[in-house]
Write a structure and sequence with these properties.
By secondary structure, the chain is mostly helical. 57% of the residues lie in helices and 0% in strands. It has helices at 2-29, 73-76, 79-84, 87-91, 98-113, 124-132, 141-154, 156-163, 168-181. Helix 6 packs across helix 9. The protein starts with a helix and ends with a helix.
């Protein structure tokens, strides 16, 4: 009888000990709560997403991140946020933010293409400087054209003015890019 009672006590003690070890070891085996989710490249849970995004390749082999411009986020830098911003975000952007600086560039661009009587229109160099202040990447014609296209999409009058520029949208982007290089 005593042997059965001791075995039962021993079994209970081992069960409690194993349960305690299991509680202590759980965070170790749970990868510290990181949640390794599979979110198609975006993660699912608290970090460490395993997956890949399926995006188109541009002509130079870089991934297009959905800006519609055919340029990767690497080419766009801070301008990537502007190209993905909603009209409401553009309207409410802080003038100190990269998006707000591009919106201000849009105002200058409008003044350059359709100058008000009695006012001196901005120069190509001023346009280039304003856009350069909003980015951390070189101002290539493709980048400038993408920014101008986004501005034109939300301002029909600007779209008309850009298309009326000598050389159209490409000519304007080339001229601003050349002004940025000098």
């Amino acid at each position: 009888m005593r042997l059965i009672r001791n075995t039962s006590t021993l079994t209970k003690a081992l069960s409690v000990a194993l349960f305690g070890v299991a509680l202590i070891a759980t965070p170790v085996f749970a990868n510290n709560g990181k949640g390794d989710g599979n979110g198609g490249g975006h993660g699912n849970g608290n970090g460490n997403g395993n997956g890949s995004s399926h995006s188109a390749r541009t002509s130079d082999g870089d991934n297009d991140q959905g800006s519609g411009s055919g340029l990767s986020a690497n080419h766009l830098g801070k301008l990537n946020g502007f190209l993905h911003a909603s009209p409401s975000a553009l309207k409410h952007a802080s003038p100190k933010s990269a998006i707000g600086k591009v919106v201000a560039y849009g105002g200058l661009l409008d003044g350059f293409l359709t100058p008000e009587q009695g006012k001196t229109p901005p120069t190509l160099a001023q346009l280039a400087a304003a856009l350069a202040a909003a980015t951390n990447k070189p101002l290539t014609p493709a980048v400038i054209k993408a920014v101008n296209a986004k501005l034109a999409a939300i301002k029909p009058d600007l779209a008309k003015a850009i298309s009326g520029y000598s050389g159209g949208a490409s000519g304007l982007a080339d001229d601003i890019s050349k002004a940025a290089a000098t």
